[in-house]
Amino acid sequence: MFQIESLVVGPFRMNAYLLHCPETGEGVLVDPGDEAPRLLSLVEKRGVALKAIWLTHAHIDHLGAVPALRKALGVPVSLHQGDRILAEAAKEQAALLGVGGRYEGVKADTLLKGNETLSFGPWRLRVLHTPGHSPGSCCFHYDGGGSDDLVVTGDTLFAGSVGRTDLPGGNTDHLFASIRFKLLTLPTGTRIFPGHGAPSTIGEEIAGNPFLTD
User: Fold this and answer.
1) Tens of pLDDT along 138-178?
2) What domains are there in the chain, each with its CATH number?
3) pTM score > 0.85 for this model?
4) What is the mean pLDDT of residues 18-33?
5) pLDDT score recorded for residue 123
6) What is the pLDDT of residue 183?
7) DSSP character for 185?
């Protein structure tokens, strides 16, 4: 099984994830939102040959470190096509949120459509397009056939909560449809690694998430 490690970065306290294979040394960063030096240090400490950056969506707290990491490592960036404009307008996002002008627009190397398979080393994860928090929000699902199942959910689903929909491009109906039909249909033991807060499982969210009760 590959390893997954998180760093909580930036003023938005966002979970950036390093997924890496101990056998091949290959890995990817998911949502490097801030603090590029810390993320680079983790990659170097683990001896990871970074192959790509995957973004669950294009809000600034999830992509703030991309320009610096891309410059340092020369790795490609994958993002759903529905969030292309958001990614390229990072400066405008920052101005709207009143957090200053240090954010740079990001142009993805690969625009995803959903249902693709992304890989590093021998490991394959499927792209689940889960719009609602943003038009191009995605989750990355690893089907391990049992206890190894996991999904990186970005800001679509959290432990005990769901993503906000009051930012530009948000849609509440789409969010709950994405959660109900793309995530809650996964095996109940599937581990959830969200964009903020603690990990959970699909079963725990079905049983106790107050936003998902009928």
Assistant:
1) 999 999 988 899 999 999 999 999 999 998 899 999 999 99
2) 3-212 (3.60.15.10)
3) yes
4) 97
5) 97
6) 98
7) T
